[in-house]
Amino acid sequence: MPKSIVVLISGSGSNLQAIMDSIDSGRINGRISAVISNKDGVFGLERARNAGIATEVLDHKQFDSRKQFDAAMAELIDSYAADLVVLAGFMRILTPEFVRHFQGRMLNIHPSLLPKYKGLHTHQRALEAGDSQHGCTVHFVTEELDGGPLLVQGAVSIDPDDTEESLQQKVHKVEHQIYPLAVEWLCADRAKWTSEGVILDDSNLGERGFQYQQN
């Protein structure tokens, strides 16, 4: 039985597209039941509509508080019987109640090799620090911003002539490889977050998660 996936976006939805492509190719045993955005008119909604996927817009500005918005969003996600919630460029900080409701079945992707560079401007920070490597991380979502258990990381090298823009492009390429992979694992019940840590195929991945090597 394919898993029901709900994807939350705020923008262009390039990671959404990568996941849609992996579903279409048969890699992921799941279906995207809905794409929900907190902003109308973003390209990610168009991607979903073009693929015949249900879309919803829940404008956070129409709610008196973050808590009310998150409660309405949780109810909307639950109406699609979501087995997995995927944050794909969803630019909202989530309330503890929302996070707890979906704990263990909600993923986020962050453009750094966590625990380095939580928050914003990660490419710029990696360049300013003189790092030789940068990358991205798929992690389970917890109440701590960008602080949940790591599932998979993909690294890129930083070259002397890299700019913030060129580094971002490198990282995006890896994001579009590791996010579908993480979704594939969860939909196949190969990966899970337990009290012992993050498990993949009955092996504990440890604190750094699975280290993905690009082809």
Question: Topology of this protein?
Answer:
Elements: E1 3-9, H1 14-24, E2 30-37, H2 43-50, E3 54-57, H3 66-79, E4 84-87, H4 96-101, E5 106-110, H5 122-128, E6 133-140, E7 150-157, H6 164-187, E8 191-194, E9 197-200, E10 203-204, E11 210-212
Parallel strand pairs: 1-2, 1-4, 2-3, 4-5, 7-11
Antiparallel strand pairs: 5-6, 6-7, 8-9, 9-10
Helix pairs in contact: 1-6
Spatial strand arrangement across the major sheet: 3-2-1-4-5-6-7-11
Structural class designation: alpha/beta
Order of helix and strand elements from N to C terminus: EHEHEHEHEHEEHEEEE
Q: CATH superfamily of the largest domain, called what?
A: Formyl transferase, N-terminal domain
Q: How would you classify the quaternary structure? A: single chain
Nutshell version of this structure?
This protein is an alpha/beta fold and 215 residues long. It has 2 domains: 1-102, Rossmann fold; 110-178 and 190-215, 3-Layer(aba) Sandwich (Rossmann fold), CATH 3.40.50.170. The protein is built from 6 helices and 11 strands.
Structure description:
The protein is built from 6 helices and 11 strands. The chain is an alpha/beta fold. The chain has 2 domains: 1-102, Formyl transferase, N-terminal domain (Rossmann fold, 3-Layer(aba) Sandwich), CATH 3.40.50; 110-178 and 190-215, Rossmann fold (3-Layer(aba) Sandwich), CATH 3.40.50. It has an 8-stranded mixed sheet, with helices on one face. The chain is globular. The two termini are 30 Å apart.
